[in-house]
Specification:
heterodimer, A: alpha/beta, D-Maltodextrin-Binding Protein, domain 2, elongated, B: 265 residues, mainly alpha, MetI-like fold, 13 helices, globular
């Protein structure tokens, strides 16, 4: 009798997955063991950062890893409130970078920060529309027009509280079609041309390039989000975490942030 | 020696497995803000999200029944097909089970969004689906359908086909055989499938938030409301989770033993 031919075919992907898992488990230890220089920095630094920081932080992490080959930076991007809540719930992380000070405060109030957060960047909101601008949005006041599909962040995340503050400062009553959990989700809906407009950060609009058209909001400059970063008290690799924090606030980091559209505090 | 059921090791491992499934739910019960619970449960946001979840869950289950039973019949009959189409069909039905729901939501957006492959044409006649309650129903139907199809297909395969053949030989039309013989024959499978389908639809998160967005009263279902609340107000989030848990457990307990997949009573 013949064995069913599907058996080996089924086992092969499993073996592949196991090999991947093993590789994934062994790679962090492979770095430090190959050390020859006198670089005291090693190990993994886990960074939780606001979604709006994703491009610039990924870039800075690559550059930091080149300078310190024994360090691996692991980054997780998301809505600031979700990240702060993860820390409060005991997520193992070394650094937290949020998009405003209110979310950071939930972590410092819980005594989970090592020292005082450093405010190193600012961001303001801007209006983005799909390049075809289907609803012919020309200014932020157009968001209140009936039939204009608007995506905003939920008020539980920094970009949402900023958007809500901006709209009430403009005395606009806007009914969005969706309230997203982070700023990149708003940007995606605009990029896909599924909404007519969205309020995102200037840096997000810049990162999206020509996939969206930016319309400046003059009064947005009055509502500045300040970006703090802090080493967490639960960090198991404070030396490297502190070094990466210093790298972010160094001239290299600040230049990268400036090029990405962030402001200086 | 006489066989006396599974070995001790099996019992111990089964105990661990059960603990993994049940203890997290116990965590919800233990950390639930019991004193504030009544107030949280009747909060307008809770009732609104619950109402929307129940409404969309019922509609999706109805859609799953209408579309899924015929698909289950075809799938059950496909055993006599050549191997390639047979496996392709089975894979197609299985996809929503293994696909990350967020990917499913993105796929729906790319198909039915106003710039999507089909959505483009719908937009021409003034129909836009994303960010509507209809989009929630479609997302839930997409992820829940396999539960119904596989439950009904299992029942069909276990059913005695000779009854159908007898009816057909007595002159009943295929549609009449389907209505008066096949459907009653697999009724327990349909009921089990519908219950699992409803429970899955109720818990749907990823595809919904990607395809339908999140707006109170329109697309913000219980899981999304619970997730958003978890970022700022854990008590509210746990209260919402508790509602979801109670409804799901009540629905599943309503199932008779022999209706559950894998149980032959």
């Amino acid at each position: 009798m013949r064995l069913r031919p599907s058996r080996p075919a089924r086992a092969a992907p499993l073996a592949g997955a196991v090999a991947l898992l093993l590789a994934a488990c062994s790679s962090p230890s492979a770095g430090p063991s190959s050390t020859t220089s006198a670089d005291p920095l090693k190990g993994t630094v886990t960074v939780l950062a606001a979604a709006s920081l994703s491009e610039v932080y990924s870039d800075l992490a690559d550059r930091f890893e080149k300078l310190h080959p024994n360090v691996t930076i692991t980054e997780s991007f998301g809505g600031s409130s979700a990240l702060a809540s993860q820390i409060v719930q005991g997520a193992p992380a070394d650094l937290l970078a949020t998009a405003n000070q209110a979310t950071m405060k939930t972590v410092t109030d819980a005594k989970l920060a090592d020292g005082t957060p450093i405010v190193y960047a600012t961001n303001i909101l801007t209006l983005v529309v799909p390049p075809s601008n289907p609803a012919e949005v020309k200014a932020v006041a157009d968001l209140a027009k009936p039939g204009v599909k608007v995506a905003l962040c939920d008020t539980t995340v920094p970009c949402g509280s900023a958007a809500s503050a901006l709209l009430s400062a403009e005395h606009l009553s806007v009914t969005p079609v969706t309230l997203e959990t982070d700023v990149k989700a708003v940007l995606t809906k605009v990029e896909l041309d599924e909404v007519d407009a969205g309020l995102v950060y200037v840096s997000d609009a810049k990162a999206a390039g020509d996939k969206v058209t930016q319309i400046a909001v003059p009064d947005a400059a009055n509502l500045i989000n300040r970006y703090p970063i802090v080493v967490l008290s639960g960090s198991k690799n404070k030396t490297a975490a502190w070094a990466f924090e210093q790298f972010i606030v160094s001239i290299t980091g600040l230049t990268a942030l400036k090029n990405a559209g962030f402001g200086t505090p | 020696m006489r066989r006396r059921g599974p070995a001790v090791t099996v019992w111990v491992i089964a105990g661990f497995a059960l603990a993994l499934l049940v203890l997290p739910l116990l965590g919800i019960l233990l950390s639930a803000p019991w004193p504030h619970l009544p107030a949280l449960l009747v909060a307008p946001e809770t009732l609104q999200a619950l109402g929307l979840s129940l409404l969309t869950g019922v509609i999706s289950t109805a859609l799953c029944l209408v579309l899924g039973i015929p698909l289950a019949v075809v799938l059950a009959r496909s055993v006599s097909w050549p191997v390639v189409p047979r496996r392709l069909l089975r894979a197609a039905v299985t996809i929503p089970l293994v696909l990350p729901p967020v990917v499913g939501g993105l796929a729906l957006l790319l198909l039915l969004g106003r710039n999507g492959v089909l959505g483009k044409f719908l937009a021409l006649i003034g129909v836009t689906i994303p960010f509507t309650t209809g989009a929630v129903v479609i997302a839930q139907t997409f992820v829940a359908m396999p539960f119904l199809v596989f439950a009904v297909e299992g029942a069909l395969r276990g059913a005695d086909r000779r009854v159908e053949l007898a009816a057909a030989s007595l002159g009943a039309s295929p549609l009449r055989v389907f209505r008066t013989i096949t459907i009653p024959l697999v009724a327990p499978g349909i009921a089990a499938g519908a219950v699992l389908c409803f429970a899955r639809a109720l818990g749907e998160f990823g595809a919904t938030i990607t395809f339908a967005g999140s707006y109170p009263g329109v697309t913000r279902t219980l899981p999304i409301a619970s997730y958003l609340a978890s970022q700022t107000d854990l008590d509210q989030s746990i209260a919402l989770a508790l509602v979801l848990l109670v409804v799901s457990v009540a629905v599943l307990l309503g199932l008779r033993d022999r209706w559950l997949p894998g149980v032959r009573g």
